[in-house]
Recover the amino acids of this structure.
C-alpha cells in the first residue's frame, strides 16, 4: 500500500533558515510549506546566496506582486529579469536589450512589433496544426511503452511550434533545444559548470538569431523571423543585438516553459486520478480550464525580477536604488485567499487568477495563448491514445531559483 | 454602500488593447474578442459578482486598456 500523495509536506525549516536565493532550497520537498510560513510572517524579506549574487528582496504576497508588476517606473526591467544575475556582471539573458528587459514607453513600441503574431485569432488559426503535431508526437509510441515524458514528448511540441512560428529549419532544432537547456539551466551542474556556460549558450542562441534574421531579410519567408527582420523602428532597422535578442527571448520562452507545464501536468494527473477521470469524460470542454490549472500548478517560471529604480519605501520596507526584487509567483499561485484549497489540483478551478504568465503588468507573457493551447491539445491527444498514461517515478528536478524545470520523468503510456 | 454595482461601466481603449485575451478569460459574460481581434463589451455588469470580476479584469489588463466610466 502506498502512502497518499502529499503535495505540501510540513517544512522542517525554521523561518531564518529559509533562503529563496539558494538553488538547493528549491530542490526540497517542503519548499511550498516554507513559502507559506514565510509569506504569513514576512511577506517581504531579504535573501542572499553566493549562487545568486548580491541578494534580493523577496516578495511573496499576491497583492504586493500585482502592485510591483504594474509600477514600471519604480520597479524596472531594464537591468535584467533573472534574479540570480547581478546587473553589470556581464551575464547575458535571452531578452537582454529587447522586450522583457525594456520599460515603457520603449517596451510598448518594441512589443507591439511582434504581439500581432500572438493574438487569440492568430493562435486559433494554429489549432489544427498544433493538434497534428501533438498527434504525430504521441503516435510514435505504443500503449505500455515506458518513456521519458520530458524529452520524448513534452519538449517536442513547444519546440516544433515555436521553431515553426519563427522559421527555424528542422535540422537546427536539436541544437537550439540543447542551447535552451544550457541557457536556462545555468545553476544546474548537469548543464554547465558555471553560470558563464549559460551566458555562452545564450550568446550562441542570439548569434543564431542574427544569422537567421539576415537570411530572412535577404529572402523573406512566411514566418515571424522575416517580420522581425523587416521591423522599422523610427526609421531604423533593428540592430544585430536586438535581432538576436528578439529571436532568443521568443525561442527560449516558448520552449522550456510549456515543456515544464506539461511535465508537471502529467505528474499531477497521475497523483490526482479523479481529476484525470474528469478530464477523460470531457477533454474538449475542460481543456481550457485544465490548461489554466496545470499552468498554475506547475508555475514554470518561479519568479521574475525587477530592480528598484530609486530609493523608496514599499509597504514599510526601505529599498535602495539598484537592489533586486523577485516576484515569487511560486508563492502567490498557492495563496489560499485567491485559490481555495491551493494544494488541490482542480482542473475545473474558476476563477483561476494565477500569476504564471505574470501578474498583469506590461510584460504579461506574450505567448500565453499559444502555451494554453499547446498544453490542453497535448493532453487531449495523449489521453485519447493512452488513457492509462501515468508517471511511474518522481520528477528529476532542475536546480534553479527561477525555473521549476523537470529534467526527466518516467511515464508508462 | 454609496455605489451601486450598476454604476460600474467598463470601456475599452481600442488603440491600446493588444487582444491578449486576459479579460475574455476572466469574464467571458462581458468581454468577447471577435474574428478580427477586436474587443467587444457584450453586456455591462449588472450584479455585484460580475462587477467584482470586471474590476479584476480592469486591474489585470496587461496594457491597462480597460477603464471604468460612470
Amino acid at each position: 500500500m502506498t502512502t497518499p500523495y502529499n503535495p505540501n509536506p510540513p517544512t522542517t525549516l525554521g523561518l531564518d533558515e529559509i533562503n529563496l536565493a539558494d538553488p538547493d532550497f528549491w530542490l526540497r520537498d517542503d519548499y511550498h510549506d516554507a513559502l507559506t510560513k514565510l509569506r504569513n510572517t514576512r511577506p517581504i524579506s531579504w535573501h542572499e546566496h553566493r549562487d545568486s549574487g548580491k541578494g534580493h528582496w523577496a516578495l511573496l504576497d499576491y497583492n504586493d506582486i500585482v502592485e510591483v508588476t504594474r509600477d514600471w517606473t519604480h520597479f524596472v526591467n531594464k537591468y535584467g529579469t533573472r534574479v540570480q544575475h547581478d546587473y553589470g556582471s556581464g551575464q547575458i539573458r535571452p531578452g537582454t536589450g529587447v522586450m522583457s528587459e525594456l520599460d515603457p514607453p520603449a517596451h510598448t513600441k518594441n512589443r507591439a512589433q511582434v504581439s500581432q503574431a500572438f493574438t487569440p485569432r492568430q493562435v486559433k488559426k494554429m489549432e489544427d496544426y498544433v493538434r497534428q503535431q501533438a498527434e504525430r508526437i504521441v503516435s510514435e509510441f505504443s500503449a505500455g511503452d515506458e518513456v521519458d515524458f520530458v524529452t520524448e514528448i513534452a519538449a517536442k511540441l513547444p519546440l516544433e511550434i515555436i521553431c515553426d512560428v519563427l522559421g527555424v529549419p528542422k535540422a537546427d532544432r536539436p541544437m537550439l533545444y540543447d542551447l535552451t537547456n544550457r541557457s536556462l539551466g545555468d545553476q544546474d551542474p548537469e548543464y554547465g559548470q558555471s553560470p558563464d556556460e549559460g551566458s555562452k549558450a545564450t550568446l550562441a542562441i542570439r548569434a543564431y538569431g542574427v544569422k537567421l534574421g539576415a537570411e530572412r531579410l535577404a529572402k523573406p519567408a512566411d514566418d515571424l523571423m522575416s517580420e522581425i527582420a523587416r521591423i522599422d523602428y523610427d526609421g531604423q532597422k533593428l540592430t544585430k543585438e536586438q535581432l538576436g535578442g528578439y529571436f532568443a527571448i521568443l525561442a527560449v520562452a516558448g520552449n522550456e516553459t510549456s515543456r515544464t507545464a506539461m511535465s508537471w501536468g502529467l505528474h499531477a494527473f497521475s497523483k490526482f486520478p479523479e481529476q484525470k477521470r474528469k478530464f477523460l469524460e470531457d477533454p474538449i470542454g475542460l481543456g481550457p480550464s485544465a490548461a489554466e490549472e496545470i499552468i498554475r500548478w506547475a508555475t514554470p517560471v518561479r519568479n521574475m525580477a525587477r530592480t528598484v529604480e530609486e530609493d523608496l519605501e514599499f509597504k514599510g520596507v526601505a529599498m535602495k536604488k539598484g537592489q533586486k526584487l523577485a516576484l515569487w509567483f511560486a508563492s502567490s499561485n498557492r495563496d489560499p485567499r485567491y485559490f481555495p484549497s491551493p494544494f488541490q489540483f482542480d482542473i475545473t478551478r474558476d476563477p483561476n487568477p494565477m500569476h504564471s504568465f505574470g501578474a498583469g503588468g506590461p510584460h504579461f507573457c506574450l505567448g500565453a495563448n499559444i502555451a494554453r493551447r499547446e498544453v490542453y491539445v497535448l493532453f487531449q491527444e495523449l489521453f485519447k491514445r493512452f488513457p492509462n498514461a501515468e508517471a511511474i517515478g518522481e520528477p528529476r528536478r532542475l536546480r534553479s531559483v527561477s525555473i521549476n524545470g523537470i529534467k526527466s520523468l518516467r511515464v508508462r503510456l | 454602500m454609496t455605489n451601486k454595482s450598476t454604476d460600474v461601466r467598463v470601456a475599452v481603449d481600442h488603440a491600446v488593447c493588444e487582444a491578449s485575451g486576459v479579460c475574455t478569460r476572466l469574464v467571458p459574460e462581458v468581454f468577447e474578442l471577435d474574428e478580427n481581434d477586436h474587443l467587444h463589451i457584450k453586456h455591462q455588469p449588472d450584479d455585484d459578482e460580475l462587477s467584482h470580476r470586471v474590476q479584476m479584469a480592469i486591474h489585470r489588463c496587461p496594457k491597462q486598456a480597460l477603464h471604468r466610466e460612470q
Q: What stands out?
A: The interface with chain A takes residues 18-22, 24-26, 33, 35-37, 53, 56, 59-64 of chain B (CB under 8 Å).
